[in-house]
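Quick question, first post here. What does this chain look like in 3D?
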Amino acid sequence: MQPQSQQYLVEFDRLEKSLNGMASSAVHMIRREAIARFSELGFPTTKHEEWRFTNVAPVARTPFEPVLQYDAQGVTAELVDHYSLGDSVGGLLVFINGHWSKEYSRLSSLPGGVMIESLASAMRTKGELVNGHLSRYVRFAEHSFAALNTAFMQDGLFIHLSDGTTLEEPLHVLYIAAGSTGGFMASPRNLVVMGKNSRLSLAETYVGVAQAPYLTNAVSEVVVGEDSILEHDKLQIESNQAYHVGLTVIHQDGRSNVTSNAISLGGQLVRNEVTVVFAAEGSESTLNGLSVATGKQLVDNHTTIDHAHPKCASHELYKSILDGNARGVFNGKIYVRPDAQQTDARQTNKTLLLSDDAVVNTKPQLEIFADDVKCTHGATVGQLDEEQVFYMRSRGIGEQAARDLLTYAFASDVAGRVHIAPLREQLDALLHARLREGRIVKDI
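> Answer (accepted):
Ran it through. Tokens below.
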């Protein structure tokens, strides 16, 4: 056992003592398995292939304290309104340090067949439904941070759509990390289950107002039923002192369609992982990602697409803009299993370096065990095209303005794919604000 893991065993004991009668529940049995596995695994090091370019030693040596109860200190209505998407969405669901905030959340009346509530509430009142899916798709035995999240999972988002249900308006979920001292760990655990022929548009925003380093360790399990459609956007603009590790596992049934856009602008060290499993034939998935980093930020994007059944299609486009001494990582894995004939899998990774000191490590991977497939991947790393800069300057545009426009055009290819208009406008404003200073960001 790593010395750093011992502290979390002590914190887990504190959690157990707070549960009273719930300590014997099925969910807590999963927690116990997870903390035992975490104590065996410890935190990953750069000796692990999956973490070769991302050193989490700063996380491992910091004694982050799990947030075990709701505390809204440091959060105001004005802060929530600043990050909300207004009346253009069907509901705003707010979580503070991983815990549901009833006082700041607002939800329109829901159609029949739709359940939206906190996971803590669902575990108490819908145990059979929750237990049928919770921790069925995330493999915490192989993933240290997933094991740590599972050990301390208490609350998060729960959505269940019955067969044939469409939620007409998008939902916005706002995760706020707040605290005057920092040093805490938020562990939001989200479970989304969509029945057959259902439709959902979901936006997530992660923000941080804590005044010291903290860890957001988020895990989401998403089940997309037959013939269902999911549109998902994630915007991460946490504190410049934040560590953010996010894992999303999407389980797709036959003929389902998922589009997911992941945007990372904040955080000191960020790791985004998205895993898609095609559990039946005829499904399609589109994953887009954009990372913007400067200073000493590190943003690591890992994707895994498991083509386990035939006639499925996957499309990936991940872009990074790196300035200063920033580092970027992209690792995209595509598995095509022997029975997954007529697979169509395409993956593209592009990185724009605005500084001679910025570095990216990109590793596209294809493992193909079927012969009737169309699979492509490509990765490019470069700087702004000086001929394009010269052309724009010859038309009366200043050099820095020309560079800003070209940089924005590079980013907008992904940013413009965000589904929900107000979120897209927020992202657009953030990108423009950073470019107005002439570089992406100078002071993170």
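The chain has one domain: 67-383.
The radius of gyration is 21 Å.
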